């Protein structure tokens, strides 16, 4: 055992046994959890599992001072450079790596790997007969470069402290399991027995991808960045490409939601708007709307992703960097209640809003910049410039019910996702009873997809699909291998998946045509609609009288000329625009911002520039107003104008909305992530 010189200094309380006991299950194989455990990420619509009860009885997490307490320590070789040796120390917050040979490092460079930058870990073995006794584990990280951008890095370590492969494999599994438990927020046992059984089965996600999102790069970004990362994390998923407007809305109307632990949109804010309002179209909307939803930003409008990024403690980001940050948070799991606004339009139809209702300058820029969609997020910059050149004012009446309670700190986040065990790398070849799934079209099987580069395969891997290969998603070691006589590493031999595993049966990879509606689901067939299609179902708006009737006492009414009116729920209006700095996903408030007429173009531009830092309220602009409310009514008195709900244009006329606290569930990332306060 090697002790670590400063600055690590973490070796006082670490045991010296590096072997551990051999295990039959591997550390990244799906279904390695206890067979009686129910698949859950504690997202609110799944039954509690035996592990949930164990977590409830487990001791509280260590205080902040214990963040540097060593949990595991060992000395390992490296791959592909066999001559190097490293000392590894795992703490609750980071992995410390120090080179011992050929030249020890007093101040290791790149030797601190925060777990917030780790997507997953798996174990491997060598294909070379001369290296048959060694086992390997690979850690996937996404560190930030000097210029701030993230780049993928895989670190592979050779476990060779024992004479037999079984013993070395058990130690590799021990490290992989401990890392995955820390990533998922699962407690490690106090007796030091870290076995793959600590990892329950993974959650099952439905990914909806708008291939034309943003500048038309959504599908390419999904293949290049999203799918490799969630495969490294060991998540189980299906993927569907949407083909038209409201396609996602139609799909979720006919889904058996009990089959899914979350629905994640890979696009801009518009696709999530379709999903939530598809829930509203279902007869079981009250249960459907509780389905956890997530967003991976690949569109031009990524406001909710900007708020998720801030909630996760990351610095403001755009483009691929924002996508990688949100993907890391999704891989680690965790959710929060999500406030939703019920919006009633002039015709009496209703829709759910997770983001904003806009009138005036903001909605004008949003809709008029549609013709510049090929520019991506830059369309809003160009639209703002054009909007300032033709600045309009609108006469209207804004009424709101003030909030009686000031915004408070968010409630503790919900539970974390579970991890799969080691053999995500290869699907189980053993036959299993078929599992009935909702029919999907243009769907990729729920097996984790591999990296787009050359990846490890096993003899039992299925044939690859066009574009996407379903070989289980191994690490890119074959491409990195440069040895003259040794073969690359490969995944351990797969073990049969239990019958309850989502991998036990493959879905038909590609199904063309319109999906059938399951008669047994009791749901009506999906009906197409326009981009602004709305529903008549939804929660009861007990704070709102019917449109056109007088408001009850206690409401505040403002009438006059407005440049803009914005009712927003989360903090962000765009990925880089913090409109309501103190807003939270579950504060139960709608944050009203308005700008009255009489403001100059220069002053309005200064407001939006300051909004990038969330400091626009500190400018002292006399035309800028703010109020926290529980409900509001907007009555445009100008005959022509544009109204948007979550960036989607709706019918012009009077509307009103009420905030429904915690009606939905949002996948945000793990609790306890450091959060940057605005």
TrEMBL record:
The protein's Enzyme Commission number: 2.7.1.91
Domain DAGKc: 200-347
Compartment(s) where it occurs, according to its Swiss-Prot or TrEMBL record: Endomembrane system
Gene Ontology CC entries for this record: cytoplasm; endomembrane system; membrane
Transmembrane segments: none
Principal location listed in the UniProt entry: membrane
Name of protein: sphingosine kinase
Species this protein is from: Panthera pardus (Leopard)
Classification of source organism: Eukaryota, Metazoa, Chordata, Craniata, Vertebrata
